[in-house]
Amino acid sequence: MKKATKKFILLVLIAALMLTVTACGRGDEAAKRLILATTTSTYDSGLLGELMPQFEEEKGYDVEIIALGTGQALEIGRRGDVDIILAHAKELEEEFVAEGYGTERTYVMYNEFVVLGPEDDPANLKGTTDLGVALQSIEETASSFASRGDDSGTHTKELNLWDEYGIDVAGDWYNSLGQGMGDTLITANEMQSYTLADRGTYLSMEDQLPNLTVVFEGAEQLFNTYGVIPINPERHDVNYEGVQKLVEFFIRDDIQEKIGKFGGDEFAQPLFFPAAD
Which residue segment(s) compose the domain that 177 sits in? Predict the structure, then answer.
């Protein structure tokens, strides 16, 4: 065999070996990467910034967080663009699982929604104990209301509440923003509008919201649960092994305790409460 031919064969073998090694390296990298779609409330509150570094260090995974409204998070989950979802629209999430896109919904934590408004409270919500009366007062006084308008869990809850009490939101007083929770709060503060928010995000941003205060709270309808849903590996090519480890991490006793303490020192009350059991 000629030297040139031998040299060519050797080069081909080396190139093939390099491609194999590169592919293996990429496979290892993919095996240690997780994509988590979550609500803007868990992201804006800083909770995931507290928890995910611990998970990454313990388990050796690199977690990419995509913060969206719940509806958008579920939609990219249907496409298989993420490995796992953490959201807070229970009915939509259960529908997602029933359709076969997710394996199961596991409770992680809860907090509550609150109605925020300007200090002068033009719709006179302070002291009101009936949520229906409070919402009707906003509509009857045509007081400015800032809605997320982004198909999120908060937006879904808000629309359900208007519908439950037969309130038409077609008036000029109602402003649909198409923004996440943090941006909606900032806009509501600037407009001195009423808005619906989860308590955790509000408390974490309260120093940026001098014009807003809690004007209604405590109704049973404002209870707000968060669940984690792995994408079904029979539907999409996801990192299911890593996802299972992340679910186990969220519901682990020490992490549940950490969730229950998050924000307590800074805000004199926790932003979330553990709900795994």
Answer: 112-222
- Say which CATH number the domain at 249 has: 3.40.190.10
Amino acid, res. 185:
L
For the chain, what is the domain count?
Answer: 2
Answer whether 229's CB lies under 8 Å from 250's CB: no
Q: Are residues 172 and 199 in the same domain?
A: yes
For residue 269, the model assigns a pLDDT of 87
d(CA 265, CA 11): 63
Q: Is 60 a member of any domain?
A: yes
213-243: b (≥16 Cβ within 10 Å) or e: bbbbeebeebebbbbbbbbbeebbebbbebb
Residue 9 confidence (pLDDT): 45
For residue 106, what are the β-bridge partners? 228
Burial class, 38, CB count within 10 angstroms (exposed 0-12 / middle 13-18 / buried 19+) = buried
Q: Residue 174's beta-bridge partner residues?
A: 145
What is the pTM assigned to this prediction?
A: 0.79
In a domain, 27, yes or no: no
> What would the pLDDT profile of 182-198 be if each residue is shown by its tens digit?
999 999 999 999 999 99
Tens of pLDDT, residue by residue over 50-65, are 999 999 999 999 999 9
How open is the CA angle 223-229-233, to the nearest 5 degrees? 165
Q: Cα separations (Å) of 166 from 81, 155, 159? A: 37, 17, 11
Regarding whether 211 and 123 lie in a shared domain, the answer is yes
Question: What is the identity of the amino acid at 172?
Answer: D
